[in-house]
């Protein structure tokens, strides 16, 4: 065996030793910071939510959809649920942890709770589920107020998603409609723009989880 071949075999041997020695360290390094993957996923989710926000229609127009993109196709959504943020006047459609559509909304007016002294919305908070009661229009004689495109989420017709309110003559109450996405104003229901409310009535599956906060 000549000297060149010996050097070549020795080089290969040294390389194998180095790989065997460093391999476990590389494997350990790849698992040292599992939280990094979580942070990266959160960043991706935040970017996705920000992208969603960029589609919001401005200025707010209660005659039109809240976003300038099509409504989500629920047949392609794996984990659909809804979150209503009363204080921020937004209703979020989710697929798992990802916001897939945002609607301008108006919830119940805030009044001071005589027992606690805290300001409390007329809209119940907690977890509810979409119910079967829905329709194209209604009018509440006692409140002198109605709306179009409603779907119930509590007490089978008492608390609803519906359009901005209508008056006794069926015309929209423009003064109240102007509050959409800006402030609270309802008696407890969740008001939406006309197209958003219509989409809810026609597409919201019975049993959909609805979380209301604020």
TrEMBL record:
Residues 80-213 form the L,D-TPase catalytic domain. CDD domains: YkuD_like. Pathway: Cell wall biogenesis; peptidoglycan biosynthesis. Pfam families: YkuD (PF03734). Keywords: Cell shape, Cell wall biogenesis/degradation, Peptidoglycan synthesis, Transferase. SUPFAM superfamilies: L,D-transpeptidase catalytic domain-like (SSF141523). Signal peptide: none annotated. Residues 33-58 are annotated as: Disordered. The active site is at residues 162, 189. Residues 33-48 have a biased composition (Basic and acidic residues). It comes from the Bacteria. PROSITE patterns: LD_TPASE. PANTHER family: L,D-TRANSPEPTIDASE (PTHR30582), L,D-TRANSPEPTIDASE YCIB-RELATED (PTHR30582:SF2). This is Cell surface protein. It comes from Limosilactobacillus caviae. The lineage of its organism: Bacteria, Bacillati, Bacillota, Bacilli, Lactobacillales.
């Amino acid at each position: 065996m000549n000297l060149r071949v010996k050097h070549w075999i020795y080089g290969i041997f040294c390389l194998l030793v180095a790989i065997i020695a460093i391999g476990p360290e590389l494997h350990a390094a790849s698992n040292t910071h599992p939280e990094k993957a979580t942070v990266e996923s959160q960043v991706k989710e935040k970017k996705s939510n920000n992208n969603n926000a960029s589609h919001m229609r401005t200025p707010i127009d209660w005659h039109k959809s809240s976003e300038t993109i099509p409504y989500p196709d629920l047949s392609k959504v794996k984990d659909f649920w809804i979150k209503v943020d009363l204080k921020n006047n937004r209703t979020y459609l989710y697929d798992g942890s990802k916001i897939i559509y945002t609607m301008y909304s108006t919830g119940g007016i805030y009044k001071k709770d005589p027992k606690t002294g805290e300001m409390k919305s007329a809209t119940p908070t907690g977890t509810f589920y979409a119910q079967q009661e829905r329709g194209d229009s209604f009018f509440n004689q006692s409140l002198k107020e109605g709306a179009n495109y409603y779907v119930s989420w509590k007490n089978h017709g008492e608390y609803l998603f519906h359009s901005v309110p209508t008056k006794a003559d069926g015309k929209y109450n423009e003064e109240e409609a102007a509050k959409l996405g800006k402030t609270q104003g309802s008696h407890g229901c969740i008001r939406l723009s006309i197209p958003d409310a219509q989409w809810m009535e026609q597409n919201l599956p019975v049993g959909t989880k609805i979380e209301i906060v604020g």
